[in-house]
Amino acid sequence: MALDDPHARPSGPPGADGPRTGPAAADVPPFTGDEVLPCGRLLSRVWEQAQDAAPAADPHTVSCPHCREAVAGLAPLNAATRALRTEDPPGLHALVGRVMDVVRAEVRLGRLLPLADPDRDLRIAESAAAKVLRRAADTVPGARAATCRLGPEGEGTDVRVTMTLAAALDRPLPDRVHQVRRSVLDSAGQDLGLAVAAVDITVIDVLEPEPPLGSGLPAGGGT
């Protein structure tokens, strides 16, 4: 039953509570599931009379302990409903604004990944971890990390690293990829404290090999 709603005016069965006042009263059916009090009156009817008339205008409500108890129980709920309807909107807007600020920050930082410490609830933002791991890949000569993504692996604290790479072809590609994977794993464990289950690397571009030192000097070096 909707409280304090001027448009919700249920009525009891004909003859149960006496004549019904108001237009088209006989055409308004009682609410489905409306509670019938031990005295035989509908709860919605008792509440409506308590709102619309002074207590003395309805002798039954004044004398019936079941009706009085029902009205007393509904009054606090009605008061709470009124308070919610008149709550200061700026307060709600401020709360929504704070929530959205947190959401936007998490979008920028990426997901939060657990560190490999089951005794502490420590986490690191994906964007921060990816930056460190890209730098670790770039320490390998002839390799440059393009993208790096991290995500949870399984139900524990393990994570999976997915990286794209540009690599030079002056040495066998599998050897260079293995060296990059080893550098990423070492940095994840030593620098970040991440438990990395796997590092998936895809080579998407080719780098020109770095020229050997001194290749730009003229032959002989004399004048």
Number of strands: 5
Spans with pLDDT under 50 lasting ≥5 residues?
1-33
Give the biggest beta sheet: 3 strands, mixed
Name the assembly state: single chain
Can you list the strand order of the major beta sheet?
Answer: 3-4-5
- Give the helix proportion (percent range): 40-55%
Order of helices and strands: HHHHEEHEEHE
Distance between the termini: 104 Å
How does the helix and strand content classify structurally? alpha+beta
**Overall average residue pLDDT:** 74
Q: What general outline do the C-alpha atoms trace?
A: rod-shaped
Beta percentage is 15-25%
Radius of gyration: 37 Å
Query: How large is the count of helical segments?
Result: 6
Index terms:
6 helices, 5 strands, 3-stranded mixed sheet, disordered N terminus, 223 residues, alpha+beta, two-stranded antiparallel ribbon
Could you outline the blueprint of secondary structure elements for this entry?
Layout: H1 43-52, H2 59-63, H3 65-85, H4 89-109, E1 112-114, E2 123-125, H5 126-138, E3 143-152, E4 158-168, H6 173-192, E5 195-207
Parallel strand pairs: 4-5
Antiparallel strand pairs: 1-2, 3-4
Helix pairs in contact: 1-3, 5-6
